[in-house]
Structures are given as C-alpha cells and as structure tokens.
Write a structure and sequence with these properties.
This protein is mainly alpha-helical and about 200 residues long. Helices cover about 70% and strands about 0% of the residues. Strand 1 (about 35) and strand 2 (about 40) form a beta hairpin. Helix 2 crosses helix 6 (about 155-190) and helix 4 runs antiparallel to helix 5. The radius of gyration is 17 Å and the shape is globular. The termini are close together.
Length: about 200
C-alpha cells in the first residue's frame, strides 16, 4: 500500500533553505545595484525555483516556493527590493511569484519520471521550468498593467521588456542543469533519502 510520506526534519530544513535562497535571490541587487534593467532588479529567483524542483522533487520543491510566498505575504520583506504583503502579489510581478510554485513542481515531476535522470532530463526539466515562469509571469504582468494598474502596455512590449531578463535566465538555467546531476546523485545516495524512498511503500 502506498502512503503519502510526512515531512521529516531534513525535508523541513531543505524547504526552509530554498525559501531563504529565494529571499536572497530576490534582493541580490541590494548588494550589487548595477544588476538592474531600467530600474528593475535582476533576480536569481528563477534559478533557485527551478533548482528546488529538480533537486528536491515536485512535492518539496513546490512546498518551498509556497513557504517563501507565504512568508512574504505575512509581512516579511523577502520579495524583490525588500517588499512584502499582498500588494506585491497583485502587482506587475505577482505572476512570477505564483509561477515559481508551478515551475518547481513540474520541473520536479519531469525528474521523477526517470529512475536515474541524466543531463538531458535535467536540461528538459529546467527549460520547461523557465518557460513556465516567463509564460505565466509575462502574461500576468501584461494583464496587471493594462487592467488594474492603469499603466497600459502592449503585449509585444511586455515580452520585449522581459527579453532583457531572458538572456540572464537562459544562461543560469543551462548552468543549473549542468550542476544539478552531481548534486542530485550526492543527495539521493545518502542513507536518509534511500530510507525515505523505501518507507513510501509499506
């Protein structure tokens, strides 16, 4: 009989670690102000969101993104430019915050489809993740600025704006995919994860 595993101590640690990495990735321009395009900060969040999915799996990866989002909505200044609260979610970048959950989940699912995932699988999972982030985030931004933020922008312009960030994210996506297999095998060869996989089936 297959049962849904509970969160264990290490699971919670890994979830918290990636939630913290998301907060750091959101505010990296606070320490490097030159990493901005038209006043909009570049972010390492897509990199960490996808990494969470491919390394932790769909369940833990998506949960870490949910935890990060809830921390920010609760008032902790973990969003970009140290912002917090529901206002960020309904702002122009709110779609990206939501997309991280979906991207981490689906990237993790793709990895989980293979018993022993190889580099091509990590590349596919990573690019599916970054594609989802841009499709969801950019469309949300277009809707937000045109319908409730009263800052009209054409659909083409919205994608042109995001193209500046796309170059950076493609590079980091490839980098993440190349380093992930070694980290993945090191993590899942540990006794903790070996025993966890066995405990799923009783």
């Amino acid at each position: 009989m297959q049962t849904k595993p509970r969160f264990r101590a290490l699971d919670l640690t890994l979830i918290g670690m990636f939630a913290a990495l998301m907060a750091i990735g959101a505010n990296i321009t606070s320490w490097a102000p030159f990493l901005q395009v038209a006043g909009v900060p570049l972010s390492m969040q897509p990199f960490f969101a996808i990494l969470a999915g491919v390394l932790l799996g769909s369940r833990l990866g998506a949960t870490s993104m949910v935890v990060y989002l809830l921390i920010g909505l609760a008032g902790a200044p973990v969003f970009a430019q140290f912002k917090a609260g529901i206002g960020v979610l309904v702002g122009s970048t709110g779609g990206f915050l939501l997309s991280y959950i979906i991207a981490a989940y689906l990237a993790g699912k793709i990895i989980e489809m293979k018993k022993d995932p190889t580099l091509p699988t990590f590349l596919i999972a990573s690019f599916v993740g970054i594609a989802l982030i841009y499709i969801i985030g950019t469309n949300y931004m277009f809707i937000a600025v045109n319908y409730w933020l009263e800052a009209p922008m054409s659909y083409v312009t919205a994608w042109k704006v995001m193209a500046f960030f796309g170059v950076k994210d493609v590079i980091f996506t490839i980098f993440g995919a190349f380093i992930s297999p070694r980290i993945y095998r090191a993590v899942y060869s540990s006794p903790y994860f070996s025993n966890q996989q066995k405990s799923v089936v009783s």
